Amino acid sequence: MKNPPVNPFRFGALALDESFADREQERRELVSDVRNGQDVVIFAPRRFGKSSLAWSAVQALSAEGVLVAQVDLMTTPSKERLAAALAATIFEQIASPLERVRERALAPFRGLRIQPTVTVDPQDGSFSFSFAIGQEPADVDATLERLLQLPAELGGARNRRTALVIDEFQEVVEIDARLPNLMRAVFQQQPEVAHLYLGSKRHVMERIFNDENEPFWRSAKSIELGTIEPAPFEAFIADRFEATGRTVGAAAVAEVLERTGGHPYATQELCYALWEQTPRGEETSAERLRHALGAVLRSEHAHFSLLWEEASRVQRLVLQALAREPGHPFRSEYRGRHGLPPATNVQKALAALERREIVIGEGGAYRIAEPFLAEWLNAG
Ligand SMILES: Nc1ncnc2c1ncn2[C@@H]1O[C@H](COP(=O)(O)OP(=O)(O)OP(=O)(O)O)[C@@H](O)[C@H]1O
Ligand SMILES: [Mg+2]
Predict the structure, then answer these.
(1) Is the pTM of this model over 0.70?
(2) Residue 155 and residue 23: Cα distance in Å, rounded?
(3) Which domain holds residue 265?
(4) Residues 282, 339: one domain?
């Protein structure tokens, strides 16, 4: 007998292939920009699908023969780690595909100021790189600089288009305050290489790209990733249920999307729970959706409790107000309705909540960004 279908919804890991909904236009735009060698920055709050979109574009580009190296700055808290991650991705994604003999792909790394230790995994033959700590800072910088030059040189020598994807780019300033300068100085000299920067923490990303005193000022085209549109998301959800032997009612899909506002992660999370509530061969129901939402809130409880504990008193008041009514917390009617303190205090609390991406403000109107937090607050 065939194995029973497994839950088709995924949250947390990258949304790949069948788990990837819509983003058609953004994907086309991104593929085309990278093909043109255009630098792009993708801004979006946490869990909006930046990495998944980049991954999907990279797959299409690789199929066209573009060589794409990728690093995630969240996993490289020091310059030595960053150098190691760069060396590994350049080796795997750029040097190796250009060399018939894999060992020869190591040649470009022999010219580095600091030599990496290269280890070959006997199991799968994969190579890993590491750089010893405690080296002269100038030597570490020279090594990083050289590594950042390599994609352009290796690709250029063979007439191959190359791209470098840097995920969690907002971390660049945490690794070393001078790192943006060093990177930008190198990238400026490689107009043919497409650099793709992905990042959350809007205030940090904006400072990096929109402040004229910063090295990356206006250096890339920016794409702002929003939520996923209702029509394609509805089709995606219905299709996933159908493909796994269940039916999702139109009312249920509409309610799911109304609750999540098309937030990619939240939608997958709620659909995952709804699917679990729906036996094979059956249809979703309002009752099942209610249980699903309960399950999501229970599983997010620890996360929300921590967030609540870390919030100041005014932040808590503001959160409770926004959970009941998204809107304009600076206005006196709003503050009056929700018993909020003076506008300056509210402003300070909102700024802190925005920095943590718990709240989103657009044109003076604020709402809770963290999916399901409003439900949790209202239920508590
Ligand atoms: N195009 C999409 N279609 C369906 N679900 C998606 C899509 N993009 C993202 N998701 C959902 O959102 C989750 C987070 O996606 P992803 O890791 O790509 O986001 P991110 O913006 O890179 O997040 P982070 O800020 O944590 O790095 C995925 O696990 C998936 O559930
Ligand atoms: Mg990501």
Answers:
(1) yes
(2) 29
(3) 228-309
(4) no
